[in-house]
Every structure is written in C-alpha cells, then in structure tokens.
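thread: overnight batch results

M.L. [08:02]
morning all. the overnight job finished for the chain we discussed friday. pasting input first so we're all looking at the same thing
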Amino acid sequence: MSETYDDDDLLDEDEDDDRGNRVTAGLSRSVLEYLARSIVDDPDSVVVEVDERRGGVALRLHVAPDDMGKVIGKRGRVAQAIRTLVRAAGAKEGLDAQVDIVD
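M.L. [08:03]
and the structure it wrote out:
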C-alpha cells in the first residue's frame, strides 16, 4: 500500500523535527567567535572548539599569542565579560556554557 501526503502533513512533521536539526551550542559559539574576532588584531587566528558535557558545553577559545592580553584584559575583566555574555547565550539555548581561554 502506498501512502499519500498532503502539504499539511509535511509541515507538521517539519515542526516536530526542528530540534534535531540545530547545532549544539550554535548561538554560544557564534557569540564567542564574534566577540573574540572584534577584540583581537588577528581575527583569522580565532578558533573555537566545542566539547559537549552533561547539561552544557565547554567552549575553548584559541587566539594568537600576541592577542592573549586583549582577550583577557586588565585583571581578567574582558575575559569575565566574555564568559558572562556567552553564558547568557547558552542559557537562551538551555545550556550551561563555560568558556576556557587556551594558549
């Protein structure tokens, strides 16, 4: 037996599968990349790695060695601001997003 579908049936199936098509931590990663590229002198050297963890994600930020000071800031204030914004973006996605700045 063959089944026939009309357009309304196809729309209903797409609505159910929306969550399966999303990139994990996509918003958090995008926010982190945007902020880092805006701050550093060498935006092409910005790399963000994503590791999924239980209940959240860990984002590792890599920048050029000369740009580390700009990303960290005096007394770590820039780094803390970045972490706060990325954590808020993660919360919007329902994730706990942690940012690590790596050498």
